[in-house]
């Protein structure tokens, strides 16, 4: 089995792991019904609608 010749320094590992912080932000778009930010191709968490169809009942405490 191939084995690393040298121990990798803490700095090297940190440099590699720092790349995880560069992950792109999910693509939010405003909901066409209520304007709340939602993910594309996903049901809106604010009004419970997806493609003009009610998927789940929205929570009662919305917009007091
Ligand atoms: Zn909505």
Describe this structure in words.
The chain has 64 residues and is an alpha+beta fold. The protein has a domain at 27-64. It contains 1 helix and 4 strands, in the order H-E-E-E-E. It has one helix at residues 10-18, and strands at residues 28-30, 37-39, 49-50, 53-54. It has a two-stranded antiparallel ribbon with strand order 1-2. A hairpin with a 2-residue loop joins strand 3 and strand 4 (53-54). It starts with 9 loop residues before the first helix and ends in a 10-residue tail after the last strand. The mean pLDDT is 83. The structure holds zinc ion. Zinc ion (ZN) binds at residues 31, 33-34, 36, 44, 46-47, 49.
Outline the fold blueprint.
Elements: H1 10-18, E1 28-30, E2 37-39, E3 49-50, E4 53-54
Antiparallel strand pairs: 1-2, 3-4
Distinct ligand kinds: zinc ion
- Report strand order across the widest sheet: 1-2
The poorly predicted ranges are none
- Tally of DSSP β-strands: 4
Count of separate DSSP helical elements: 1
What Rg do the Cα atoms give?
A: 22 Å
Structural class: alpha+beta
Shape: rod-shaped
- Mean pLDDT comes to 83
Give the termini separation.
Answer: 64 Å
- Strand fraction equals 15-25%
Roughly how much helix do the residues carry, as a percent range? 10-25%
Which sheet architecture does the biggest sheet show? 2 strands, antiparallel
**Series of H and E elements:** HEEEE
Key features of this structure:
two-stranded antiparallel ribbon, 1 helix, binds zinc ion, two-stranded antiparallel sheet, 64 residues, 14% helix
């Amino acid at each position: 089995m191939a084995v690393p010749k040298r121990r990798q320094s803490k700095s090297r590992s940190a440099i590699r792991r720092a790349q995880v912080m560069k992950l792109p932000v999910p693509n939010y778009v405003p909901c066409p019904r209520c304007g709340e930010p939602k993910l594309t191709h996903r049901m809106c968490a604010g009004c419970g609608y997806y493609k003009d169809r009610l998927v789940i009942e929205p929570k009662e405490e919305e917009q007091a």
